[in-house]
Amino acid sequence: MCSPRSSSQPSTDPPATQQSPVNSHNEWDPLEEVVVGRLEGATIPSDHPVVTCNVPTWAGRLQGLAAGMRYPSRLIGPAQDELDGLVELLQSLGITVRRPEPVDHKRRFATPDWSSRGFCNTCPRDSLLVIGDEIIETPMAWPCRYFETHSYRRLLKDYFRRGARWTSAPKPQLTDELFEPEFRTPAEDEPMRYILTEFEPVFDAADFVRAGRDLFVTRSNVTNRMGIDWLRRHLGPEYRIHEIASSCRTPMHIDTTFMPLAPGKLLINPTYVNPDDLPEALRSWDVLVAPEPDPIDERLLKVTSMCGKWLNMNVLMVDEKRVIAERHHTGMLRALERWGFEPIPCDLLHYAPFGGSFHCATLDVRRRGTLESYLP
Ligand SMILES: NC(=[NH2+])NCCC[C@H](N)C(=O)O
């Protein structure tokens, strides 16, 4: 029998005057605090069709053979050195860096319907969505990522205790009804089709980017229409969510397809996005077309990357001018300069086998700014 809560119990509500530690309305306001992912315990993800549908068939077969094994030190080593360099760079810029707990992602876990091992917590961008002072745990479609946000709970509880709003979207069941049976990735000349049904709402945070009251999303193999509708209803009429058409046949995460870099400046992937198909409200924006990525010669990196070649777009804005970008992709560095930005070259090429680059590896928890409208 629980004793009635006495009024003397301390409230967890912060003083009304306290600023929320979570405040991020767009991709470019001056960055004050960021969460950076971790590589420890990274485990090769399962060969569930929702995972392997995003990579070539041969890569999916290879992954099936290695699923559940720890990533080899040959891949972890170079990535760790580069990740340490990114943390040092962010701190040298006066940005507070927070980290999730290290986790043994090889441990098995289960729900009433299935069991799996984990994957990694290298990319906080994928599982946590920050909208203003709210941090949302997103309903991920990969079973191996089901409990990924648990490694961030110390941070989430700290943010909540200090005034942030903390929400978890409906936990999905991820049963077979969510996935199209016998799914086959469509060829370039075939109509687009997605592996997800509309059985329940699922979405990754990384399928969304923010421009104040306007958010942009790509429907993908981890984000279905019901997931987009759930967020639209959750955020209410103060926000607009625009769906961006992408011709990528293995769609997952918007941040190598469509990236708003500053007010009125939009970076697009020329092979996935047709400028004529952009929302009418973006007509006044400068559309910056990403240059071809610089070739990567390292065979091991090419074979083990979980991403396409357009990680040169996966940049992190420090403010409206300064942008952390991949040193290897010199074409993008020069283009950013031409467009009036100040690129800060940094190395993260070896993070691709773990899911991405700078935007993926980070979560901008607090930027100095307010909720604005940047579109008519
Ligand atoms: N937030 C992320 N993990 N983004 C990674 C981008 C992955 C994208 N599907 C690509 O192939 O480039």
From TrEMBL:
Residues 1-27 are annotated as: Disordered. It comes from the Bacteria. Residues 1-25 have a biased composition (Polar residues). Keywords: Transferase. Signal peptide: none annotated. InterPro entries: AmidinoTrfase. SUPFAM superfamilies: Pentein. Belongs to the amidinotransferase family. This is Amidinotransferase. It comes from Streptomyces polyasparticus.
